[in-house]
# Entry
Amino acid sequence: MRMRVGRLAACLTLALAACAPAAKPRVQPVTPPAVAAAPATTTAPTAMPVSLGLVPWPRELAAGTGPGLDVGPASKIFVTNAPAALRIAGDLAALVARSTGFRPPVTPFVPGVSEFVPPGSLSVTLVPGTTLPEGYQLIVEDSRLRLNAAAPAGLFYGLQTIRQLLPYWGEYDAILFQRPRPALIPPLTIRDAPRYEWRGAMLDVARHFFTVDDVKRFVDLLALHKMNRLHLHLADDQGWRIEIKKWPDLTAKGGATEVGGGAGGFYTQAQYSDIVAYAAERFITIVPEIDMPGHTNAALSSYAELNCSGQAPPVFTGTEVGFSALCVGMDFTYLFIDDVVKEIAAITPGPYFHMGGDEVKKLTPAQYRGFVERVQTIVQARGKQMIGWDEVAAATLLPTSVVQHWRPDAAHGELARAPHLILSPGNRTYLDMKYDDDTALGLKWAGLIPVRTAYDWDPAAIVPEAPAAAVLGVEAPLWSETIANMRDAEFLAMPRLAAIAEVGWSPAAARDWERFRVRLGAQGPRWAALGINFYRAPDIPWK
Ligand code: TNX
# Structure
């Protein structure tokens, strides 16, 4: 089925305005309500009740008093006159238009001349130094909405919050043809910023290939939940998915199949750059992974000279792991790796290169460590920080290198010494695990993962020996042995991706399963409107 790429995130940008600094809110702090009640009074009889079904829950939220904002035909958006702010203000206007049928005009502030925001209007302002990294403030009071951030990413996340405050029916394509209706945003003050800088997901495009439009659709799911890293698993035994100009057979041969023997596919470098740019507009960094020295049958079958034997193995379309390895004792292998890292680094603006490093059964521990250290040097020489799955913690790592924890039983001593850690414990974050025994898709080697299991854990408690500052954050991998298209991917990812997003964003003290499941249930109509094939998990009170 063809997805509506870009619709999910069409409103993702926020503008900044040099509007007046937000006044101190006259509000009482409240504990996060599961779903806040609509304000007692509304100014328009047609106003829709708005629930606070926010996911992820913000760092601080206080209910306000007095009128909220009735977005209506007279509403305008005032914005800081800067390109990033104007783009986000334009997206906000489009979002409001979809929700209400009225498209508010966007007017840049003229600094020092007019920073007045009239009642009924919205403002988007970029003011350096006013928020934490990636943070924003959203203040709705006196019939005005003010969004403010120190940097564009914060405005973007504020826009996602506004999106969840607006009625879900704005997500339907048909809404513009319906009678315009005002939408009420309740009075509130939100001061928000993420708990962790790394809030990611991984998509395995190697076991089954996913098109550029599929990947953009996945990016949209991340953006909706304020996630900011998309790790692409670009090469494995079953497929090589990224064009390397100097080694064309990697894709010509190694990209031409997938699990089950389908046609596979690959991204040209131009297509990859298109994905990178699409993600960047949504403040998402692409993290490319070329898995090595194991998980390399696609490369080994493409070039005989990469094999110690000089013989290329056949392509592989099964799902076993651990049988392949690069010829680590041969210098030629490292020339190959350098070519690959060089070409990918050149089209990857983000600072990371993931070298995989998992599940190597063909090498001695010393061979493995030597390989990791040599690849680490190559990656660094090409200007990137190396990331590896947790097995790489056995090697001597540079201070910039990042270890991605995945095995629930990995040795904590090594992990505690990792310069930086990403937490992807298989028994919590693996989106390819079944929800329960009846789930048709997915695996269960790391256990069954119902929504509560994906939600109810604290990243700080996974490797308690690791210094808190070493923990970059969390990432949810979606391996694709058992999924062949985006419908399948959405079924396994949603709603657990939203749970992991909150684990990465919200402060530990604000997280609570009982409240979360109600807020998650409130996403149902929105996700349905967006055409997301989410699993109606029985433990969630879907609206
Ligand atoms: C383990 S997680 C793997 C992958 C599989 C996955 C399936 C990791 C680093 N390696 O090769 O696809 O399990 O759940």
